[in-house]
From TrEMBL, chains A, B:
This is APC family permease. The chain crosses the membrane at residues 63-82, 103-126, 132-158, 170-193, 213-235, 256-278, 298-326, 347-366, 372-392, 404-427, 433-451. The lineage of its organism: Bacteria, Bacillati, Bacillota, Clostridia, Eubacteriales. Keywords: Membrane, Transmembrane, Transmembrane helix. Its main location: membrane. It is a multi-pass membrane protein. It comes from the Bacteria. It is found in: Membrane.
Amino acid sequence: MVSKLGRLLIGKSLKTNELKSEKFNVFWGLPVLSSDAISSVAYAGEEILWVLIPVLGIMSYKYMFYSALCIVFLMILVTLSYRQTIDAYPQGGGSYIVAKDNLGTIPGLVAGASLTIGYILTVAVSTSAGTAAIISAIPVLLPYRVAITLLFIFIITIGNLRGIRESAKVFGTPTYLFMVVILIMIFFGIFKVKVLGYVPKPIYKIPPVVSDITVVLFLRAFSSGCTALTGIEAVSNGIPNFKEPSQKNAKRVLELLALVVLVIFGGVSYLATLYHAVPNPNMTVVAQIAHQVFGGTVMFYLVQATTAIILIMASNTAFAGLPLLLAFIAKDGFAPRQFAKRGKRLGYSNGIISLGLVSSLLVIMFQGDTHYLMPLYAVGVFISFTLSQAGMFKRWIRLKSKGWIRRAAINGIGALVTFATAVILGITKFLSGAWVVFVLTPLIVYIMMAIKNHYSEVARQLKLPVSERPKEKVDLSKQKRYVIVPIDTLNKSFLKALNYARTISDNIIIFHVSVDDEATARLLKRWHEYNVDIPIVVKKSPYRSILGPLVKFIKSEEYAAGPKDTVTVVLAQLIVTKWWGNILHNQTALFIRTMLLRMRNIAVVTVPYIIFED
Amino acid sequence: MVSKLGRLLIGKSLKTNELKSEKFNVFWGLPVLSSDAISSVAYAGEEILWVLIPVLGIMSYKYMFYSALCIVFLMILVTLSYRQTIDAYPQGGGSYIVAKDNLGTIPGLVAGASLTIGYILTVAVSTSAGTAAIISAIPVLLPYRVAITLLFIFIITIGNLRGIRESAKVFGTPTYLFMVVILIMIFFGIFKVKVLGYVPKPIYKIPPVVSDITVVLFLRAFSSGCTALTGIEAVSNGIPNFKEPSQKNAKRVLELLALVVLVIFGGVSYLATLYHAVPNPNMTVVAQIAHQVFGGTVMFYLVQATTAIILIMASNTAFAGLPLLLAFIAKDGFAPRQFAKRGKRLGYSNGIISLGLVSSLLVIMFQGDTHYLMPLYAVGVFISFTLSQAGMFKRWIRLKSKGWIRRAAINGIGALVTFATAVILGITKFLSGAWVVFVLTPLIVYIMMAIKNHYSEVARQLKLPVSERPKEKVDLSKQKRYVIVPIDTLNKSFLKALNYARTISDNIIIFHVSVDDEATARLLKRWHEYNVDIPIVVKKSPYRSILGPLVKFIKSEEYAAGPKDTVTVVLAQLIVTKWWGNILHNQTALFIRTMLLRMRNIAVVTVPYIIFED
């Protein structure tokens, strides 16, 4: 039943060699990898104005324009840098790989950890913001805020489990719709003022000018808008997800992404200046612009609806990025290796599911009030940008390949600028939450190192030299095999286990742990009646543990097996076919097996007895 | 580490024969089993006034007195009835046992189900109410309401896991403290008005009289106060938890319980009349009385504090009652039999833990706003009262033992009155939530029946007739044993499994499922180098499943084992000693074993290979 439901939700399994057809082309790759960046226009401009308006009043628009310019410049620089990364790392070159390859393991892990935090927060923040947008339109849904957000995360998780290609089409369409709607708004908005001569009537009053611009204020405004850049990493990390020629396709998507963000972010910022939008808790800046441009027409509502959808879609970039990043880290042994395993539909399903679960947990913990998680993730993203650029810079210096000076210059400047941005973000946002990144990142790096140590140690202990030969073929009839068959009740399941034991040994002991005198007396009476010529050992267990007396017996003098002999324990296990049946049976066999296996020189045989029910 | 933490929290294991010393006497049994009933004075009187005051104004106090009288009468009647039940069922006679024994299985299960619902709700409601009382004193804690409630449930769960006796002492003391404080308040309150001639100044204005009393209004008031009776069931259900003479002790506790509730409930109701307390969301009725009686002295705060504590302690009655009830039901096969198993400290730990978890879930689901769960549980409790009384009535009619007419009369009147109350509760509270009980109870009864059917079917299929003999001793050297050893990587763990296989058979096949061509090529090359004279079979798995190809191979013509031969699969299992190590390894062996066991004629041998780490 569970597997049927699973198939219904995520579709039938795909063969490994169908992987090729599960990749995306430029047209569908763009919306998936850019939705995070594009969605930020829905709030990045507004965030800048929130900082400026209370101090600068009408002057704000001038400096908003400058901030936007700085961010666009940063965007172009980062794009150019990442183009070079894609050239250098055709197998996928996220910050993790580039930093690890060029700067060493620790910087690589730092980049990986900060990106992981960033991606998880992206999902929690963007789905919460999307839900908030929907609720501000339909206030009656307010009590179900958390449930709605979780539903969105669930849908996106399922969509991604269904496979890259399918999710790209389903989740990509709304992104394109948003782009088209916003572009229409930009063009018509400019046309209305510049050509039709419309005089904007601001919906909210602009507060008076309190003071002039300061460097600190400008930096705070700039850093508030920097969230616009978070999605870029996903492209160069995701090269393996592109159709051939994957490198070329990835570069094309990167360029288009920069172009789209540039046009939309620039356009909306310009419109905000033109129409004097003033941030207000009751109406977003984009909504104010749309209302002035389109009035109460259907286009206004279309802007509102697509904005809500794009906010939710933004989390899809994280779903495209994080599982792949975790797979890279896991292949290197720094994360549980299950993250490197492809699921039924060839996506890295463990990464997808983990991302869905952890972000859902965050939403529940913060009851959907995740807007104050926002400062957290920009810092992490810029730390990883810096490490990636610095890594590339070092690479050019080392390789000195053709055109290395120009390339080194681009990445070097990129490193400096993104580092400066990371510092600005770290300082301006430290108290409002960025400190968490500085606590979590080292912790995650430490865990990753511990995981790597564990895997190395396991590999070392498992390594088999050719000199260590298997046992020679033995005369089976001369083997002394020690077999113990525990008994609780004399029934068919036990009999099946006993019969199996008989086929492998003629040195069997039946073992009974007595926790209830009456039950033991009944068993012994029946055993007597049954009259089989095999010794039975009964041990009392005052603390009602079954395992303790069994282990003690195996280790005791009383039992003839030496410490080097392998003891075989044959367990009868009831198998019930009803899916809810297992919770009705003490999983004693399971527990005994789990604990016995921690002893050396033991082999546990499980003999199933199946109960059929209709 | 986990087991150390467990020992720290719940203490060391107790021996089965220490059970006797884990029981409670009258002095400690009273607070545990009465806290639920006693705590209801903190709100039962208030609930009555909430119904009456808006309509009757100053007239309310008169009818509150009548309502209280009716409830006290009901209380006495139920107490007398249960005294008889304790006499008749010395092994413990909750409604479940009495109804099942005298009325049949379905009435018994209905009683059991409705009590189960009642107990679970008691915990959720009373801990939430206690937290609310604390928060109204310290409003800064408001954002942590859910967390605080969960913490209380956790503490009470742990306390009960530590054992009956210990929890009785820890949780019983505050109950006695509350009793003493409230008794002082009652005596001094009456003394102050009647002797010192104090003229009460009501804190809130009594609203004007709107209309006269109606039957419906009176019944609504009466039913709102009926929650005072919910704890009585726990005493007669809990006879086995009392020290010898357990029957006599239980009866003594029942009588004392009735006395205490009578005095406190009657006293507080009288004080409410005397001091004209008016229910108000900002100050409870008890608080208003205490403030007038004691002024702002320390006694006022003591009343407040002990009231908050007793509300939380009320849930302890459920922790004393439900696990025992579930154990009775489980022994009859209508609930998972794990509920009938005693834990480390001899309590029915599975029931205790389940109660803690389910009530925590309710608190989380309702975000601590559980006051509207209150109407739900009174109905269920009175349904079970009715069934229990009716059962006793039928019993006397049937047995016709000494004094049966008097006894039948008491139980018969009890059945009628509690039935009438259940009907009143069901009707007046139907829309505000009691309907849930009418949906849930049949559902739970249905599940209980399904569980019983399952256990019966399992027992039937497992039953071993003496005629069905075990296999005779066989010549081991002539056995044809089919053994398959799956291989993933050629390492020491695999070698250990192979060596074990060699000791039980000379008919071994190594089986490899290929999900990655490169890895398979590497394995085959190494296997070749290793040069062991055992055949290896390689199967491709396009869908990356390990299990599918293995099962297919076992069933195929290619494999020589006939459908009646037992096939032995020897699995190498890695055991890591670090507690977090297991999440880092694909639990493939575990999964394969689980699925293979669903085939008939198979035996799965698990050979552990232990990795030691410091």
